[in-house]
Amino acid sequence: MVSLLNDELLDRIADALTDKGYIVLEDVLPETLSNALLDKVNHSPVESFRWAEIGRGNERVREQEIRSDRIRWLNEQQQPDADYLEYMACLRHGLNRRLFMGLFDYESHYAFYRPGTFYRKHLDALRGSRNRILTTVFFLNPDWQQGDGGELMLYEEDDALLEQIPPRMGTLVIFLSERFPHEVLPTHKDRASIAGWFRVAGSYELP
Asked: Which of 99, 83, 120, 119 is nearest to 5 (CA)?
């Protein structure tokens, strides 16, 4: 797989995470990979995505008043999932060399939102829990227009709005998991993305 993760881009990501804790990138994955991921979503029946739940471990429950998307975990034995996970492994190694973050493991799932669905404001990890260190969100929505909804809203720690990010095809968002509350606004058309989390050694728990 041809990777666009060169040293210049890795330096840019590392600098942004150090300075402000997040970065929004456009078209940094190979176009062939982005299109293959989109094609997989488009040709997967809705039934292959399970309803998303909240909570952890045995306390996971479905709460559609909080999140109403469907998810499907990536499979490293299948393409194009394997190529996406390889890209994220390159990102992990590059950030560990630059920031000594100790990132060890990565998990990710497709998220599929039908019209009217959403995910209320939440944190991916409680401060100090170390179960999720760095969050990634990659969008798979070509021809997304203003008014289609489904924006990713990123907030400061005091809940002040920081960024409103349209879920346009090829956009990759990376942010510190413990620092930024975020939400997905109700979408007015089908919306697809890949959400993922880097962890440190000794920490592993599916959401």
From this structure: 83
